[in-house]
Amino acid sequence: MPINNGQSIKLYALTWRLPIIIWQFFFFVGPVLFMVSMSFFLVKNYRMTEAFEFINWYKMLSRGYFWDSYKYTIFISMVSTVCAMSLAFPAAFTLAFTASETTRRWAIFLLIIPFFTSYLVRTFSWFVILSESGVVNAVLGYIGLGPYTMLNTHFGTLVGYMTLTLPLVVILQTVTMSNIDKTLIEAARNLGCKPFATIWQVIIPLSKTGLIIAAIFCFILSFGDFVAPFYLGGSQETTLPILILDTTKSGQQWPRAAVVAIMMMATLFAIAFTGIALAYRKRKGA
Amino acid sequence: MKPNRTLNIILTTYVILIFVFIFSPIIFSMIFSFNSQRFPTIPLGHFSTEWYQKILADPDVWDAARNSLIVSSCTAVIATLLGFCTAYSDYRYNFRFKGPYLALILLPPTIPLIIMALAMLAWFSKIGMSGQIYSIVIAHSVLTAPFAMAVIRLRLSQMDPDLEAAAWNLGGSEWATMRHVIIPFCKPAIFSGLFLTAAVSFDEFAVSWFVSGLNKTLPVLILEIVQGNIDPQVNAIGTFVFLISMTLVVLAQIFFASRQMKSF
Fold first, then answer.
1. What is the pTM of this model?
2. CA of B264, closest CA in chain A: separation in Å?
3. Whose CA, among A53, A86, A202, B22, lies 20 to 30 Å from A162?
4. Segment-wise mean pLDDT, segments of 10 residues, chain B, 264 residues
5. For position A202, which CATH number holds?
């Protein structure tokens, strides 16, 4: 067989390398860059005309409601991240350290299913469960409590965010903590470290990278979700995703929606980079 | 660590509570789909298949189901193909700009769906491809290819690095080696990727909603029904969507796990 080093090997390598480059340039880089340039377009009589004007940026960024919604979205996403991280921690801790290998595998297997599926239907289901005469209030009614208003509140929004983020956060925390070298924990115990001190001074520092990555994902997911604040929070407070939705769907103001989207992306990149820098920073004096 | 027994029981109960929180919406939705009440709560009404009969008689539901099926199966094939090419390139080659190359495929899922939805909507209208079923397929392929890539890349990293070289030494061309060694080795991961990307696509609603135009998929139909009112039909459609997407994710996981058994 003739050995053909030149052309055919190049062709072979390019066959695997090129498709994704072409595809993503057309259908990922293209849309994102177009969205950025769209933020400078003009809208006249409900028709978008290509231009290079800063009017949309000026209109959006000078409005109080944009910044209110910006601050609220950051605030509620942070609350969501703190809730998800702390609610997940005891569960992940148990799965990582006291559960058997088999239980842990099954738990992760089960958690992967809701992470990938049916967030919308699960949120709608919460809408029914949490409503004024829904299941939760009916149960509380038997023991003489309530009814409580849970929909159209921050609580409702947070339940939605937890539905979205909790499976992923538990998975990431469990995987991170089960990778810790168990002998280090035993060493800490043998040296007289109390259980809670072991968690704070040994387990959390050792799983820092994974925990920060879990928190970043949780923040990104909450920050970009419109279903929970819309259906469970009753859009009492407009989050940025709802602002994009309204501006695009009812207002037909795509360029202004693009401004909001770019601001969101810039914020997320800043937060993700800061987080990753923190996650991989070497510990001082270690 | 050896926590004492009471602590152990508390922790185990806590884990169970977390799972109850995560799975109760799914379970309640299934229960309510067979419940006669117009407004689902407890105590339950009697068993009824009324909502299922309603959705089966609704041509919109059939159209949406057909669209969903087309979209998710086409997406699965394209996304897995793209994912395989990228995973293999990453496994086999080192080249300049490999970092940006990988970022190009891995970034889309980290961008909020609502932003991707807006970007895709604007771009597709610009290039005259909006409102078609294939627009959803294209958008979904971009969003789901990274999942297929990750699954196949993990499988490739379990391959003995000498295996490919051994095949070449035995006279196989690169193409033949790909066909007879690498693809068979990756088969479980390829199936896993197909099922996983199909599941994600089957459930995606934000991008579909923006770019679909009149060709609604099932999640978009649900989104439009639930706007503002409680309609028990949603539970029936939802249960159907749950069953399909959960089956797909379970299959994806089974194929993914089978890698350990079927090693070369």
1. 0.91
2. 23
3. A202
4. 76 95 92 83 79 88 94 97 94 88 91 95 90 93 95 91 85 86 92 96 93 88 80 87 93 82 47
5. 1.10.3720.10
